[in-house]
Each structure stands twice: as structure tokens, then as C-alpha cells.
Amino acid sequence: MAGERAGHSLQATALVNEAYLRLIDVQHVNWQNRAHFLAMSARLMRRILVDYARSRGYQKRGGGAVKVTFDEGLPVVGGRDQDLVAVDDALEALAKIDERKGKVVELRFFGGLSVEETAAVLKVSPETVMRDWKLAKAWLLRELRSASAK
To answer: How sure is the predictor about 132, in pLDDT bands with cuts at 50, 70 and 90?
Structure first.
């Protein structure tokens, strides 16, 4: 979240708080190590951001849902939510082709992990993470451009 623009649709503290609430709500999880915890945290943060973006899009289209605010301090910013949903859709397509590259993006982009932390979670070398990261970014960029052209 540190690299996001000012006024992002979710504040970092709200995102971490929601992830924490979901983590403590999970019962019977056998946490294997720090890497397992970080991987689960990244996945939860991705889900929270994408769910929030999708719900914003739903409300914009007049879905008739009762609006319940996530946090009174969260500014509503349009346009970027659709981008996040498109990234999530492209990331799911990438994971079907190459699961590890999908996990690298999820851990780095949504989880904010460093190259070394991502390598530890995935049990690969940092060089492998960097290769996967570069290829995944190029693949995702191509997918997002082709999706926006449609």
C-alpha cells in the first residue's frame, strides 16, 4: 500500500485490520512457520482489496444493495477499483498457466513481501523470484492491455 497513490480506496491500517480480523477468525489452522503466515496474509489482503473493488463496481451499477461502510475514513475514489478487478482476473489466468508466477505476484504485489521473503515462502532462490516477477509483470501487462482494448 505504500506505493499507492494518496486517497487510495482503502487505507493501509484498514486493510491490515480487516486481514487481522479474518486471520484470527480462522480456526484450526496449523501455522507451519512465518512464511506460511505471510503467504496467508498476502492472500487475505488480495481477497479484501478485490472484494472491496468488486463491491464498489456493483454499487456503481445500481445493484440495489444496502450500503454498509467499511470505515468512515475511507475515501471513495472511482476508476481504480475496476483496475484492481482486472488485475485479479488476469492474475487468476496467470495462475492457471504458471501457479508459481501467480504466487510471486500475489506475495509481492498484495502482500508487500520483498524478493527474499517471497523466495523463503516459495522455497526458491531470490533469482528465481526475480525471473518470475519480471515475466509475470510482462505477461500481466500484456493481458491488461488486451483486455482494455476489448
So the answer is: very high
